[in-house]
Design brief:
It is a single chain. Helices cover about 25% and strands about 35% of the residues. By secondary structure, it is an alpha+beta fold. The strands form 5 sheets. A 6-stranded mixed sheet has the order 6-7-8-3-9-10, with helices on both faces. The radius of gyration is 24 Å and the shape is elongated. The C terminus is likely disordered. This is ABC transporter ATP-binding protein.
Length: about 350
């Protein structure tokens, strides 16, 4: 059970700044995801926490203890990275027990801990297999067992599911969350997949070009993003200009914006699922495309110079046709969070 503090971590590679004096605190048992596009510095930050890369400046503390001068093996941090990096010539049990052996843990104790770790990831029956006789998902579960067997203070995940197919990814994602909760280990998880970040995190940190630009719990960040970058990175959204009409802020189709910050806002973010579309021969919009996705139907509608995206459930809805005229309305949110979909953006 541990807290992690990063203070002013900076890193450049030649002229390129990968991290700009980044500070971050992770609470005991918290699951934080770092979400950002390729090249924003996520992996560099993880490597610095793990001790694989040295920062130019800054401090790292676990439970108040400075660790930035320690070599990786003395930081008590568990790593699960994208490539499983299992030793091919060692059995599953030997792979999982390797870190314990390096730490000089007595054989009997180590064997018991390896067996317990393999049970945790449901691979108890696979202890004597070699990695090549396992599926990708099983190999990644071995990597997870190997990371937790050392009873780390902190678990670091760097895109651990990206080599797996979609169904397995969802399954392992859920397993991983359950395991982290059960063990209560403080975790940081890097991804560029917003659905993964939302599914796993207690708190999402959105990174852009070496900085954390916004953070929050998944629901708050999705529904009340402060920046256009976060709004657009966390799923699809419509960023619409705010129009002033008789001193009132309205959406382009004239509907009043009832949001506290609307008075100053130049744009709002409106999620596709928060716009209702009504077939209306006199309506101001024209359907450009209709995509049926099973669980949902997505439409793009031309409205003047704008293109509005909308999403509806795929059940029981007569699909609109390309070329049909429509009018718009924003939905009343079905949850008690108020009118949060209409968020003002700087
Ligand atoms: N060893 C290195 N030498 C030079 N530049 C590097 C090195 N490692 C990273 N960089 C640069 O630092 C920046 C951040 O890279 P980093 O790998 O941390 O990004 P990332 O967010 O993890 O991206 P991805 O999702 O593609 O893995 C990039 O511009 C990258 O090119």
């Amino acid at each position: 059970m541990s807290t992690l503090h990063l203070d002013g971590i900076a890193k450049s590679f030649g002229d390129a700044t990968a991290l700009h004096a980044l500070s971050l605190s992770v609470a005991d048992g918290e699951f934080v995801t770092l979400l950002g596009p390729s090249g924003c510095g996520k992996t560099t930050l993880m490597r610095i926490i793990a001790g694989i890369t040295q920062p130019d400046r800054g401090e790292i503390r676990i439970d108040g203890r400075a660790i930035h001068a320690l070599p990786p093996e003395r930081r008590n941090i568990g790593l699960v990275f994208q490539s499983y990096a299992l030793f091919p010539h060692m059995t599953v049990a030997a792979n999982v027990g390797f870190g314990l052996k390096m730490r000089g843990i007595a054989r009997a104790d180590a064997d018991a801990r390896v067996a317990a770790a393999l049970d945790l990831v449901d691979l108890g029956a696979f202890a004597e297999r070699y990695p090549k006789a396992l599926s990708g998902g099983q190999q990644q579960r071995v990597a997870l067992a190997r990371a937790v067997v050392i009873e780390p203070d902190i678990l670091l995940f760097d895109e651990p599911l990206s080599n797996l197919d979609a169904k397995l990814r969802d399954q392992l994602r859920d397993d991983l969350k359950v395991l982290q909760r059960r063990l209560g280990i403080t975790a940081i998880y890097v991804t560029h997949d917003q659905a993964e970040a939302m599914a796993l995190a207690d708190r999402i940190l959105v990174m852009q070009a070496g900085r954390i630009i916004e953070e929050g719990a998944p629901v708050a960040l999705y529904r009340q993003p402060r920046t256009r970058f976060a709004a657009e990175f966390l799923g699809q959204t419509n960023v619409l200009p705010v129009v002033r009409q008789n001193g009132q802020a309205v959406l382009p189709w004239g509907q009043p914006i009832i949001a506290k910050a609307a008075a100053e806002a130049t744009h709002v973010s409106l999620r596709p699922e928060d716009i209702a579309m009504v077939l209306d021969p006199e309506g101001p919009g024209e359907v450009r495309s209709v995509t049926f996705l099973g669980a949902s139907v997505e439409c793009r509608v031309a409205f003047g110079d704008l293109e509005i995206r909308m999403r509806d459930t795929g059940s029981g809805v007569a699909l609109p046709a390309v070329g049909q005229r429509v009018s718009f309305n924003t939905r009343t949110p079905p949850h008690p969070l108020g009118e949060v979909e209409l968020m003002a953006l700087p």
